[in-house]
Amino acid sequence: MDSNGIKAIIFDLDNTLIDTSGSDKIAIEKVKVLLGTRFGQDDVRKICDGFKQKLLHESYDRLGAASIDDKTRLELFAIPGPVRQLLEDLRVAHKLLLLTNGVAQTQREKIEAVRCEGLFHAMVVGGEHAEEKPAPPSSATASVCWGWGRRTA
Length: 153
Prior knowledge:
Largest sheet: 3 strands, parallel
Distance between the termini: 24 Å
Number of domains: 2
Shape: elongated
């Protein structure tokens, strides 16, 4: 694949490479079915609303009740085959960076779940840095990963 003068391409993870929102909805529906066998509809609604809030804020709380179906959610994440193939093709002529925001542990779990290793030359998780994209330091971190100066970020 010809680079056409493009040196690098930056990708986001959530709702760009993976259908995070779609996976969240499926996980919540599975939780509703499971909880519906044990609790009343009011309780099910409250629990699922808490789960939705957790997903919106991506707070990492392994012991909290809001993490009731993270396993199902992670299993649903996938980079679609044609997108994975495109990334593999692009990687031949371009530097590829995954630059994603969110709680570091949560984002790392997603990255592992979709098997990103080998697709990108570098991965920057905003939650591991003082500021997240689109803040200039986040772009500077990406530049450092590739050995560029701040000016080219």
